[in-house]
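To whoever is on call:

I kicked off a structure prediction for a single chain this morning and the downstream step that reads the tokens threw a length-mismatch warning. I double-checked the sequence; it's 325 residues and nothing unusual in it as far as I can see. Pasting both halves so you can look.
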Amino acid sequence: MKIYLAPMEGVIDHHMRYLLNQLGGIDVCVTEFIRVSKTVLPNHVFLKVCPELTPLSARIATEKSQYGSSNNTRLQLLGSEPELVALNAQKAANLGATAIDLNFGCPAKTVNRSYGGARLLDETTLLYEIVKATREHVPIETLVTAKIRLGYDDRSSYLRNATVIAEAGADELIVHARSKADGYQPPAYWRYIHEIQRHLDIPVIANGEIWTLKDYINCREQSGCDNVMLGRGLLARPDLALAIKAYLGGDEYEYMTWPQIAALALSLFRSTQAYYLPKHTGNRIKQWLFYLMRSYPEAGILFEHIKRSRDFEFIEQALVKQTLA
């Protein structure tokens, strides 16, 4: 059984991947997407989104050790031109990417307007061509995976899209159990994933609306999938993956306390200090607190206290106090 960390654009970057990986319970991470549109991209574009690809010697030399490992990190590409996507996948594999994930699920309007992400779910033949070209351009040991939603305007295309992706050579398929039109509104339609799994010979991973252990159990029953991808649920409850694995092992699990969560937030805040301009100080922490509010009322109180501040020391001290509460 594997738990995947979702590639939440603008939210889960390499800092957050490293932090949640260190906490434990996660088996596979997927990067934010790299947009492929006109050319084969230079090395620095891949390394910015996926610094886990940076050679260990370079990480040590630059004292940026919080990159984690590329062994469990998949590099995500988003594009609509098969040959161009494939050539960029080939370059990523040459840089050390052990897996290429193809984004056919992003619902963002800006992405869909430029013919990317979930917009391609109405183009079943094109999905096949993108996956097939990518599979042919990367080494056989490099995994090619894809993530889809159940459809674009409706859910009628889910099975044919899943089928051609598998036929084109994908090694795994992740399914977000909603259409683009459904957005992120509950419920997630996990039962559709069960039908996909029955028709495919490759692993299928369920995604969508898994906030709690109970949600995981329900998803598992309805989708037939042991493997799941967690996104917002893991941000709201950072040790949810650990709780799921404890449950599967027949063990009781005691969730982390708020001071322990605050210590994680403090660690993330300090680790990202050098990466953002002063005017953006605290933005990532405030963003994370928004998700944490769902599980920890204290996160909402802290958010109100720091939401207008851009002062590093003020925010740092506010976090420190929470770790001692």
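Update from on-call: the warning came from a stale cache, not from the record. Cleared it. Sanity check on the structure: The chain has two domains: 3-248, 258-323.
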